[in-house]
Automatic annotation (TrEMBL), chain A:
This is Glucosidase II subunit alpha. Residues 97-301 form the Glycoside hydrolase family 31 N-terminal domain. It comes from the Eukaryota. One of its GO terms (cellular component) is endoplasmic reticulum. Transmembrane segments: none annotated. GO terms for biological process: carbohydrate metabolic process; N-glycan processing. It is found in: Endoplasmic reticulum. Gene3D superfamilies: Glycosidases, glycosyl hydrolase (family 31), Golgi alpha-mannosidase II. Keywords: Endoplasmic reticulum, Glycoprotein, Glycosidase, Hydrolase, Signal. Residues 686-772 form the Glycosyl hydrolase family 31 C-terminal domain. The keyword S-adenosyl-L-methionine does not apply. Pfam families: Gal_mutarotas_2 (PF13802), Glyco_hydro_31_2nd (PF01055), Glyco_hydro_31_3rd (PF21365). GO terms for molecular function: alpha-glucosidase activity; carbohydrate binding. It comes from Effrenium voratum.
From TrEMBL, chain B:
The keyword Metal-binding does not apply. One of its GO terms (biological process) is N-glycan processing. GO terms for cellular component: glucosidase II complex. Keywords: Disulfide bond, Endoplasmic reticulum, Signal. InterPro entries: Gtb1-like, LDL_receptor-like_sf, Man6P_isomerase_rcpt-bd_dom_sf, PRKCSH, PRKCSH_N. Residues 177-204, 399-426 are annotated as: Disordered. Residues 9-171 form the Glucosidase II beta subunit N-terminal domain. This is Glucosidase 2 subunit beta.
């Protein structure tokens, strides 16, 4: 939840919106202001050369090339170091990952670099791609020996071009490169070296909103331009409450990266939000894709604009180094697989957390919580996880329980366990300053709290009042944090008591922009507190999340963790789920949730969701229903509510809505086997779960127009209903035939459809050629479905699909103990091939104990004719078949108990 | 919906069903016997005739789920349930979604393979609980019937009293306007200080009647009013006034027992005369107050006369150290904080809405939803703040007892049956 506005006398006002003046624009921060002036100057003087590569400095070994960049206008300034490293994709071994690293040599203060392995994997784990280097006079060419990937470096002015197949990315072709070396206050120099030579205001101190940033180390910004040649648009840069296409030239302001707790955030703006993934995927008009990734955790601005055939961008960060990655396609999926090669593959969540989550700020006490659980049972509505927000603690001291309301937390945990459900408790990063609070005492005695610029303990104001903020950047502090999750430390603990990390931007109610001062100090991996908060701001939440996940692993190494975070950075997909924070029960927020979540998925984070049906305010019943109907198609589906809203459990709005909720939530659960497969293919194969409409066919220009529709891995198409009273909607169905998920008897459709929408569900279509895996029996929670048999639904005459299953909760899958089958249908035979491979874990070896692998039913949708007989393999026994015609004279054919198991090879033959 | 259904039957089983299929209710034996004829099974909705072997074969064949009373195969089909006989305990219906899911729901274990029969263990207590509840409901219904009758009478009395007071008020208004015209110096507000007010004035004023004496010195008179036999004319201390005459010849009675003796002021205190405009003003206030009270009471009986019993009742409960009180058709409080005053019933007549309580620091004014459930005793069962400044409470009252509440130990529990109105207090 966000800071609650205190309205004492104004009463009950609904029309709140973000106070934009609280948050900095580019112009209001000196480094962005002067960068813009610098780029103006560079553009106005085309012959200007600021950086040139010194050809004699080029060295190369294996997959690495190194060179010096001179400041052409002042050769006395120490040159910059450029290092290029070439790597292969982990997934298919192809070339197309180039790391370009630029920093200053012998800096006055260490330039902050993320610890290897935290966000970006250690280089030694990556597969090197050996290169050859040659100087062709004014240009150095670096060629991958394994493929068509290459880099060309123009010497003066310095420009770099990355090419892979047909994709071209140009770095510094507009000569925006700006590297502000650390300097002593009052030092002077000659010639144009960086942006401070264009505007030297506020280099060593600046103020905003009544807070002064002391900036003792002075200017340190790094920026550069990147051009995506022939790209119709670029996508990514999560998290912003804006549409998908970044280059639509809607905003004069650049996209901002500065993780903040923005109260009642505005929509369709490039303002900063809770998290930051500085990654884009560019899609060319010929359909080829490429990516650019710049993992710098300081405040960032990225400007994107369409310009002629190209999409141009510039990237600017307040401090740190330039550590950039070029990622080749050819498709957007390969870009993402390369991104996962660099940052690591996602964590596979336990099966149970793909079910429904029920949260509220706050379920009052144990009795209230138990009664919620009971009512789900009474209404026969499945759910898996109950959530407790901040009020469950003793005075907002995390790892404690409210002394009266949750004194009997065990009673609640036992009740949930009896229905095989789970509990999530909130664990925020701010630690109440209270000498009687053990977490505070321990953190304090180890000196693990963030410091002020004067190395004093930093106090900020948050939920508990005066609080201290652990230095999560420090691995030792994280290690101590993990011990708080131990069974004997956290009262009422369970091996699968899950966690919610909120407020971890960090949110500081009395701090500048509701966060921590930039001149605060962290230790990180240093020996002393000398890393400024500005250097690491955007990874604070990342490390809090990481430490919490590690805590759960310390508690139970073979139980998969589940931690939801609000703040995140590139790489947070390795830890857990992300949600889009404190949204509102408004139709516009429902509508923006789709592009926001798709954008996160395009940034490697697919375990994402938006609070249903909006956190602030009371939803009207139609919005409530439409949002849940959409929410069942989010990867993370949580109902949540603000403290001041009315109760909104599924049964609160009358029998008709309760009935619809029951049916829709049941569909979510029936689809769990498909969801789980999607999660496995994401976590273990790098394929995003929610995809934009153009994802499967980047040459389909029309598909780029639709933001209200998303794919689930290309086979299921979901169209959000985003307006009150909407009775008909346009649905764009890309190439191919599409079956109505809700009505298998309906004729398949294609192209743009004007559809009458049902009040009971949002439009969902399944691609002809897809195979879905379901469990049809409604249960109370996902673990109670373990023994249930599967229903396989084959769409169309030719189809292919995969199904993944494992024990759902342990790490045994890493030893191959999972089932991963490919099913193919050629019109006559449905063939199951077990033992398929997933990149991160190899081939399936089966060996499951706790899950049913029985198929109780196979349904063929849209067969041209009804089969005369159906047999499994060579069996003489004909299977029992029910057929029914569709409205276009095709057939839906259902086979009862085909006697086949997942994880085994079999053939089902239809004779016509 | 299937337009045409073609079922290729590979196996035919001919069985005669003489017993109840697993999971069906014994009363359904005939229905299943009827459905199972000539080796076929007819789905309950009449849609399909299938091979008899489909019954409880762990595959959902009928769209209505009727072929799987004893398995979880049709879990999710509306109305699909299993009946556990629970011999030795209370029979119950469970949703098919509970069948074969690894959790024992029926004490006789009939919903799962491998669940022990625990009915003998849980049965006696559960049956006792159901019986007690049943008894409570019976008693509640008896009281309710009584209240219906009494309430009707009481409503007539209140209406008559209000009528009388309306007349009285009109007269007093007239009288005041007459006094105002005389402009008695003693009533000049300019010569009076606020502290120097009615009470002292009253003492100075000539007491013309017992009623006026009493009403102007309520504290002392109220004490006296409790003395048996002395009570002649009684006015309560409520904001307004309650004027009652009790006939001392009927024996010693407290003021609370004067209900059936309601007269107009004139009938009760025929000699009442008021000398000053303060006295008149005061009487007007008191009469208005009584009218207000009566209106509230009449509001209580306007929906149904049986609620008259709640009109004068307050209930209290301590929850986690906080004292909550609700006066039905009046005010709800937590300690001294108002949670709202009675506003209206909900449409169904099961819930009362109390609104306009003290405003929250950053939110709306407090409000309360009070759910009334059947119980022989009138008590506050539960109250909590479900969202900021929004409270929900449940109270039991005989008036809430209807025929639908009656549960006896031979009636199976359904998934939605609340065994007790709410969880018992901690």
């Amino acid at each position: 939840m966000a800071l609650r506005v205190q309205v004492l006398l104004a009463g009950w006002v609904l029309a709140w919106a973000v106070d934009k003046s609280k948050f900095r624009t580019c112009e209001q921060g000196s480094f962005c202001r002067r960068f813009r002036k610098y780029t103006d100057k560079v553009q106005q003087e085309p012959g200007l050369v600021v950086h040139k590569l010194e050809p004699s400095s080029v060295t190369h070994a294996g997959n690495k090339v190194q060179a010096q960049l001179l400041f052409a206008n002042n050769l006395r300034v120490k040159p910059l170091l450029l290092r290029l490293s070439f790597f292969l994709s982990d997934v298919d071994g192809s070339c197309g990952i180039v790391r370009a690293f630029i920093t200053e040599q012998e800096p006055m203060h260490p330039r902050f670099q993320l610890t290897e392995g935290d966000v970006v994997r250690p280089e030694k784990e990556l597969k090197p791609d050996t290169v050859t280097v040659r100087d062709t006079g004014g240009v150095t060419e670096v060629d991958s020996t394994s493929g068509t990937c290459k880099v060309q470096i123009r010497h003066a002015p310095f420009e770099l071009e990355f090419m892979a197949g047909g994709q071209v990315l140009r770095l510094n072709s507009r000569h925006f490169l700006n590297f502000e070396r650390y300097r002593a206050k009052g030092s002077s120099r000659e010639g144009l070296v960086d942006a401070t030579d264009v505007d030297d205001g506020n280099l060593f101190e600046e103020s905003f909103g009544g807070h002064t940033d002391s900036k003792p180390r002075g200017p340190a910004a790094v920026g550069v331009d990147v051009t995506f040649e022939g790209a119709r648009d670029v996508f990514g840069l999560a998290e912003h409450a804006a549409g998908l296409g970044l280059g639509e030239n809607r905003f004069s302001e650049p996209y901002r990266f500065f993780n903040l707790d923005v109260f009642e955030y505005a929509l369709d703006v490039p303002m900063a939000l809770y998290g930051a993934v500085p990654l884009v995927t560019a899609v060319q008009s010929d359909g080829l894709a490429s990516g650019f990734f710049f993992p710098n955790p300081s405040e960032g601005f990225v400007h994107v604009e369409a310009q002629g055939k190209d999409t141009r961008s510039w990237w600017l960060f307040e401090s740190g180094v330039m550590d950039m990655f070029f990622l080749a396609g050819p498709g957007p999926q390969e870009v993402l697989q390369r991104y996962h090669t660099v940052t690591g593959f996602p964590r596979l969540p336990p099966l149970a957390v793909l079910g429904k989550h029920q949260s509220r700020w706050n379920y009052v006490d144990v009795e209230d919580s138990i009664s919620i659980n009971r009512k789900f049972d009474q209404h026969d509505i499945p759910y898996d996880v109950l959530w407790l927000d901040i009020e469950h603690t003793d005075s907002k001291k995390y790892f404690t329980w409210h002394p009266s309301h949750f004194r009997e937390a065990d009673k609640l945990l036992d009740t949930l366990e009896a229905s095989k459900r789970k509990l999530v408790t909130i664990i925020d990063p701010h630690i109440k300053k209270d000498s009687g609070y053990d977490v505070y005492k321990k953190m304090q005695s180890h000196d693990f709290f963030t410091k002020t610029k004067d190395k004093q303990l930093y106090d900020g104001w948050c939920w508990p009042g005066t609080s201290s903020y652990p230095d999560f950047c420090n691995p030792e502090a994280r290690k101590l944090w993990t011990t708080f999750f131990k069974m004997d430390y956290y009262p009422h603990n369970r091996l699968d008591l899950y966690t919610w990390n909120d407020m971890n931007e960090p949110s500081v109610f009395n701090g500048p922009e509701v966060t921590m001062p930039r001149d605060n100090l962290h230790r990180c991996s240093e020996s002393d507190y000398k890393v400024e908060h500005r250097d690491v701001h955007n990874v604070y939440g990342f490390y809090h999340h990481m430490a919490t996940v590690e805590g759960q692993l310390v508690r139970a190494p073979n139980v998969r963790p589940f931690v939801l975070t609000r703040s995140f950075f590139a790489g947070s997909h390795k830890h857990g789920a992300i949600w889009t924070g404190d949204n509102m029960a408004k139709w516009e927020h429902l509508a923006i949730s789709v592009p926001m979540l798709v954008s996160l998925c395009l940034c490697g984070a697919s375990f994402v969701g938006a609070d249903v049906p909006g956190f602030f305010y009371d939803p009207e019943p139609e919005l409530f229903q439409r949002w849940h109907q959409l929410g069942i198609w989010y990867p993370f589906y949580r109902g949540h509510a603000h403290l001041e809203t009315k109760r909104r459990e599924p049964w609160m709005l009358g029998e008709a809505i309760t009935q619809n909720m029951r049916e829709q939530v049941t569909v979510r659960y029936q689809m769990l086997p498909t969801w789980y497969t999607l999660f496995a293919q994401w976590a273990l194969d790098g394929k995003p779960i929610m995809q934009p409409l153009w994802y499967q066919d980047t040459a389909d220009a029309e598909a780029f127009r639709y933001q209200n529709t998303h794919f689930l891995l290309g086979d299921i198409l979901v169209r959000a209903v985003t307006k009150a009273g909407e009775r008909t909607v346009d649905v764009y169905l890309p190439k191919g035939a599409w079956f109505d998920f809700w009505d298998p008897q309906a004729p398949p459709a294609g192209k743009l459809q004007k559809l009458k929408v049902s009040p009971s569900n949002v439009p969902v279509f399944v691609r002809s050629g897809a195979i879905l895996f379901k469990k049809m029996r409604r249960r109370r929670s996902s673990p109670t479905m373990a023994a249930d048999p599967y229903t396989v639904v084959v769409y169309g005459d030719r189809a292919r699909g995969f199904v993944y299953l494992d024990d759902g909760h342990s790490h045994e899958f890493k030893q191959g103990r999972f089932i991963y089958d490919k099913l193919t249908f050629d019109g006559q035979e449905l063939v199951a091939e077990p033992g398929q491979s997933l990149h991160a874990v190899g081939a399936a070896t089966g060996g499951l104990m706790s899950q049913s692998a029985v198929i109780e039913r196979i349904i063929f949708v849209g067969l041209k004719s009804a089969p005369r007989s159906t047999r499994l393999g060579d069996s003489p026994t004909e299977l029992e078949v029910t057929t029914s015609p569709t409205r276009n004279n095709a057939w839906v054919v259902s086979i009862k108990k085909p006697q086949c198991l997942l994880g085994t090879a079999w053939k089902l033959r239809l004779d016509f | 919906m299937l337009l045409v259904s073609l079922r290729l039957l590979s196996v035919f089983h001919v069985t005669v069903c003489t017993h109840v299929p697993h999971g069906a209710h014994p009363e359904q034996v005939e229905r299943y016997a009827e459905a199972l004829q000539h080796g076929l099974f007819q789905c309950r909705d009449g849609s399909e005739a299938l091979a008899a072997s489909v019954l409880n074969d762990d595959f959902c064949d009928c769209a209505d789920g009727s072929d799987e009373p004893g398995t979880g195969a049709c879990a999710g089909v509306p109305g699909a349930m299993l009946f556990c006989q629970n011999l030795g305990s209370v029979p119950r219906w469970v949703y098919s979604s509970r069948v074969g899911d690894g959790i024992c729901d029926c004490c006789d274990g009939s919903d799962e393979a491998g669940c022990p029969d625990t009915c003998a263990v849980e049965g006696p207590a559960l049956i006792a609980q159901v019986r007690a509840r049943e008894e409570d409901i019976r008693e509640g219904r008896r009281i309710r019937r009584q209240q219906m009758e009494e309430g009707g009478k009481q409503a007539a009395i209140w209406r008559a009293e209000k009528q009388g007071l309306d007349d009285e008020l009109a007269k007093l208004m007239l009288e005041r306007s007459g006094l105002d015209n005389k402009k008695a110096p003693s009533t000049d507000p300019q010569v009076r200080t606020p502290a120097n007010t009615p009470k002292s004035t009253a003492r100075e004023a000539p007491a013309i009647s017992e009623y006026a004496k009493w009403s102007l010195q309520p504290d002392e008179q109220n004490q006296a009013a409790d003395q048996p036999g002395e009570l002649q004319c009684w006015v309560g201390e409520f904001v307004g006034a309650q004027a009652w005459c009790c006939d001392p010849s009927q024996g010693p009675r407290g003021r609370g027992e004067c209900w059936d003796q309601v007269f107009t002021f004139e009938a009760c205190c025929p000699n009442a005369k008021v000398a000053t405009s303060e006295d008149v003003a005061r009487l007007i206030r008191q009469v208005k107050g009584r009218i207000f009270t009566l209106e509230r009471k009449l509001k209580a009986v306007s929906r149904d006369p049986r609620w008259f019993a709640l009109a004068e009742t307050c209930v209290k409960k301590d929850v986690m150290g906080k004292e909550f009180s609700i006066c039905f058709f009046g005010d709800a409080r937590q300690g001294s904080v108002s949670l709202g005053s009675f506003e209206a019933w909900d449409e169904a007549g099961h819930q009362q809405l109390y609104t306009g309580g003290q405003r929250c620091p950053s939110g709306p004014s407090r409000s309360l939803k009070l759910r009334l459930v059947c119980g022989a005793e009138t008590q506050l069962l539960d109250i909590s703040e479900v969202s900021l400044c929004s409270y929900e409470a449940a109270a039991s009252a005989p008036g809430a007892c209807g025929s639908e509440d009656l549960q006896d130990s031979s009636t199976p529990l359904t998934p939605l049956t609340p065994l007790t109105p709410l969880t018992p207090p901690q």
